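I am still learning, so can you show me any protein sequence you like together with the matching structure tokens, please?
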Amino acid sequence: MSSDQQNNSKGRNPGVTNETQGDPATSMSTVLETGASMVQDLKPVKNICAFLNAFHVYADEPSRTVEAQHYCGHLNEDVRQCLLYDSPEKNARLIGVEYMVSPELYETLDPAERRLWHSHVFEVKSGMLIMPKPALIPEAVWELAENKEMEKVIQLYGKTYSLWQVDRGDKLPLGEPRLMASITHEDQVPDFHGMVTERDIRFGSDYMRKREVRKLIPDPEVHPDADKCKESKKHGKHGKHDSQKTEMQPQRVFN
């Protein structure tokens, strides 16, 4: 068994997977794609300016976790959009999308819509959300840049949809898009430490160190409608909304 096969047999995304149903790309297809990429101006893709790694859970099955590589770009100062892949490799599968908006825009959404969005406080403060470091960049330099990015992301609200359920072994993107939620505490998923540590080994990262360093990042107030998509699934399409609960509260993750 090859090393890639051994990694795949563990059940977690090893970062080098592509088990898509279908025949391998032919030499002619590869040549045509290479030529097209040299002469076509792929402007939307060139707008991607950040690579993040994190985990999501299915809103209606919160015990199921999916690792996603986020390739994000800014539409403006208040809106970001991310393509989610199952690995950082050239043959990665596009498995979802995530939109992120500022608190100011989030406030303008109606209550039912707000419940579809999640916060990023735990992702940042726990050390789970990372910007994988390029090989030639010194650790201290990259940590400074990463923390600056985390200071921005921790304020944002995200709405994520899964398009391809690779965690259950689907060879093609089957069924309807699935709303995803954020992990908001360690006990939410089985073996949080093992899951994130395995990821860290692949990327040369250390979430516990990041957790310690990020204690200096202020905890923002999280709108009470955020992180409610799991509850919404229990109560129907949009869930119940208590219009009385409008006061935002700071979300304290770690002391």
Summary: The radius of gyration is 19 Å.
